[in-house]
Amino acid sequence: MGTAGKVIKCKAAVLWGINQAFSIEDIEVAPPKAKEVRVKILATGICRTDDHVIKGAIVSKFPVIVGHEAVGVVESVGEGVTTVKPGDKVIPLFLPQCRECSACCNPEGNLCIRSDLTGRGVLADGTTRFTCKGKPVQHFMNTSTFTEYTVLDESSVAKIDGAAAPEKACLIGCGFSTGYGAAVKTAKVTPGSTCVVFGLGGVGLSVIMGCKAAGASRIIGIDINKDKFQKALAVGATECISPKDSTKPISEVLSDMTGNTVQYTFEVIGRLETMVDALSSCHMNYGTSVVVGAPPSAKMLTYDPMLLFTGRTWKGCIFGGWKSRDDVPKLVTELLEEKFDLDQLITHTLPFKNINEGFELLCSGQSIRTVLTF
């Protein structure tokens, strides 16, 4: 492309501080350095994790360009890049895969050492590629997709099938893969089992889809918002309940409902209380509970160790346990083969300039996934 090696001027949604609205700004995006890739974003999803930055629940430096769930096309590459070329359709990866660190080399690992989950805000060389009004603008989770163009390390880019629709496949960059993988890869849900999913947002619905795909015979959805029940039943839940409908602890309600046979529970909210509830709700001896929702920063959890001593398994899960560069292209292929339907998760599609409206839909509980198109 004619822009290779040059600074690109484009539009981006910049966050200037906590609890501020996005500001659509003209920014400059520098060319990629060695082992970096510059990508033109085609579609990007709005995820609760991005909202955590606005609210201050996730630490970030400002100004920053957030967004981490997207599909784009490679505009240009830096020196030494071998896995993608200009024109390739790609998914940016908030969880990189360098293929060299101990997590990447272990078959069970996926939390690459190059991940930026602590708000470093820069690429591998310690600098940013964005400027706005003469000021450097921070990156977010190695991705920064709320912009027409972004720059990523090569380890944070997965080449995907060019036939994939960007406004659907972008969900594989975070929400869908995180939930679906929690069931099929982290928990390894078994056929005929009983599963319980706490939290019926986009990721919770994806957990339900994973439990169904794994052959679970009973899938119970739990949320205090009953408006979410219809969608949960549509994607595979067998029944839904609200904790507010009983004075008993939810673990007792579930034990009574199932004859004490809950094998798998998933906490997909990110609240400390529901993490302990989910653990208590799986079978005391052979149950497995998976923490899927991102916990709040700087909070400590208190629980009775007897919950674990009796035999339960408590597992964490980041990005559904997938190795990002290896598995994201495979998930996109499965999408094209209609192994799962992402249309059920996308409630709104808006032009990029309406990003603030998209976040209002998220915060008011009206949307599951809003996708922004460019």
TrEMBL record:
Its cofactor is Zn(2+). Residues 17-372 form the Enoyl reductase (ER) domain. Transmembrane segments: none annotated. Keywords: Metal-binding, NAD, Oxidoreductase, Zinc. It holds the Pfam family ADH_N. Belongs to the zinc-containing alcohol dehydrogenase family. This is All-trans-retinol dehydrogenase [NAD(+)] ADH7 isoform X1.
